[in-house]
Amino acid sequence: MTWFYLILGGLFEVVWATTMKLSQGFTHLGYSMLTLMGMVLSFGFLALAVKHLPLSIGYPVWTGIGAVGSILVGLIFFKDQINPLTWLFIGMLIVGIIGIKITSGH
Any transmembrane segments, and where (predicted)? Predict the structure, then answer.
């Protein structure tokens, strides 16, 4: 259940990052409220996860899920452009997240 909480927290990190962009500097109330809700849920699930996981495992994985998820949202929904070399580093980030999970022993 701990890893499930961590994944949910990472996904809600993507939600709040996305809705923060859509809020256009917190000038749109609906998206601003969704941003705050996403933040509360994201941090809440992270807090539940690190009750049973070391911080040195939980926080980097949570951040990595949020980073990779935000990249995908940017590419798909906001038509962001990624330099071809950047894809290598995104891949390394994904490998790092998986590596942390596999080697953590949790």
Answer: 33-50, 57-78, 84-103
pTM given for the model: 0.89
Q: On the CB side of 69, how many CA atoms lie within 13 Å of its CA?
A: 19
CA distance 101 to 91: 16
CA distance 63 to 96: 12
48-92: pLDDT as tens digits? 999 999 999 999 999 999 999 999 999 999 999 999 999 999 999
- In the DSSP assignment, the letter for residue 50 is T
Q: How many domains does the chain have?
A: 1
**22-37: pLDDT as tens digits:** 999 999 999 999 999 9
The DSSP letter of residue 49 is H
